[in-house]
Amino acid sequence: MGAGHLGKIHLRLLGESPRYELVGFYDPDLVRGKQVSEEFGIRYFDNMGELIDAVDMVDIVTPTLSHYDCASRAIREGRHVFIEKPVTHTYEEAQELMELVEARGVKAQVGHVERFNPAFTAVADAIDSPMFIETHRLAEFNPRGTDVPVVLDLMIHDIDIILSVVRSPVRDIRASGVSVISKSPDIANARIAFENGCVANLTASRISLKNMRKSRFFQRDAYISVDFLERKVEVVKMKDAPSSPGEFDMILQNAEGEKKQIYFENPEIRANNAILDELETFATAIETGGDPVVSLKDGARALDVALRVIRAFDEPARVEPS
What is the value of pTM for the model shown? Predict the structure, then answer.
């Protein structure tokens, strides 16, 4: 469902994928629907109900406000659903969808596409118990998407990535947001503290002069940098220095006299189409009965934290007494 900018990308990829038989699509905009139908040579359904009746899986690429209505109708009819991020408009709606999925025994996946970015997948297994994370997601201004805060438009990508590698409950959130062009914040910064001591500092902007999508993970004896835009990684690790270092070995010595050797790893980054990968892994989950890579629970948790960040905009900053 949905034939906007991203919806058309999904239609093209579903049509090309051998894992799916593309039956057709629905969009409430009749003019756009007819145009896209002619462009792709696929059937345009006159209403949502007819589309749901004709398929096994529904791909929901509509405005966020309509996600719950589209998904709940499809799930009640026993259809599997793929839902673009954010999963729903409210956390309560996401909870209801989880209950519906459980009751109807269908599969659901949320479109947090950065999980499939080849730079991230190349190092995901190496990110182990990070204790400090810093992310920057900056974009040049584009009117599309400015009807929602930058947290739900951009920052939620990094929130999902962080929650996937920090396996600990969120303890505290502090945030600030500034509206520059839009009626909702265009620039935001959030500090998320977890119960295990990890701290994540996130910055997002949609009025930057250049695009940037970088995350840095700091953990014991390792620093890992992921460039989601350029699809590059840096992995710097430390280990106990050998008793007889080589001429070109990089050795550090701390105040206690302990010596560490610095070395670099270069994981292989395999080119892919991340949107196609997320759609095809969902097909695998449906066919095998396995768990989707990004579950409804994952999408709901990312939405919950994103909404808490937005609420934190209005909370006064706490100052510790001297």
Answer: 0.90
